[in-house]
Design goal:
By secondary structure, the chain is α+β, with helices and mostly antiparallel strands. It has five helices and 15 strands.
Length: 242
């Protein structure tokens, strides 16, 4: 599925990023800030979907499963237009990074050029459940460090978008990455994602150079406690779930 950038504002926003700089930051830290991917009006529209059950296939109470505090909902397909268009626009930019990482780690890179073809591979392997997520955090809510692995087939990068204005709609709620470096203490980073911006980060692990070559370094992500207000985020995962 392709769209002309002249008629696809989401692709235009993705292409506005400095992808050399984004790739360099991702390779250094395991995460990188992306440009504005959603307008203020689009973030409102997506936030307002949360209470409309017809858009979702399931709801998860994080406290029940000891995932943290808060709640999230998995969209069902077909996705709302901004979600589908952003996934289609981002995939070609993420694919070369994913292939480079797996090459460094000596792993076969299974991902085809087309996101639709990749998702068909997931479905053929029994991973048929949609994975786009809308998360809602209230005061004192938080998300435990975790990895979004839904089956044998994974894409090593994913994107989260803040649908609220930090410092206005909420305080706290920094996006967290924790990386277990080879034969060393873990390294953490915290990022306050601006309103409408995306943040690109590692799904499971990533290559880190060591004295023995490249090593696979596990990475988990989460969200720090919301100090006040409410925070909604959109999570874009590029593999479907079993």
């Amino acid at each position: 599925m392709t769209h002309d950038t002249k008629t696809d504002p989401w692709r235009t926003r993705v292409e506005a990023g400095d992808w050399d700089a984004i790739t360099a930051e991702l390779n250094e830290y395991g995460g990188a800030l992306l440009p504005t991917l959603l307008t203020a009006a689009e973030t409102v529209q997506l936030r307002e979907l949360y209470d409309e059950g017809r858009h979702f296939r399931s709801t998860v109470d994080m406290a029940r499963y000891r995932y943290g505090e808060g709640e999230y909902r998995y969209f069902h397909t077909p996705y709302p237009e901004p979600i589908e268009r952003l996934k289609q626009a981002l995939y070609p930019r993420l694919l070369p990074i994913a292939r480079d990482w797996w090459g460094k780690l000596g792993r076969p890179a299974p991902w085809p050029d087309s996101l639709d073809d990749w998702l068909r591979m997931c479905h053929d392997a029994g991973q048929t459940k949609s994975t786009a997520i809308l998360l809602r955090y209230a005061e004192r809510d938080w998300n435990a460090l975790h990895r979004d692995l839904y089956g044998e087939l994974i894409f090593p990068l994913q994107v989260v978008i803040n649908l609220n204005e930090p410092g206005v709609d909420h305080t706290g709620g920094e996006f967290l990455l924790l990386e277990q470096r080879p034969r060393a203490q873990s390294r953490g980073t915290a990022t306050l994602i601006p309103h409408g911006h995306g943040y690109l980060f590692t799904t499971r692990d990533r290559p880190v150079r060591s004295s023995r070559g490249w090593s696979a370094t596990p990475v988990r992500h989460g969200v720090s406690a919301i100090r006040s207000g409410r925070r909604h985020t959109l999570g874009l995962v590029f593999h479907d779930a079993a």
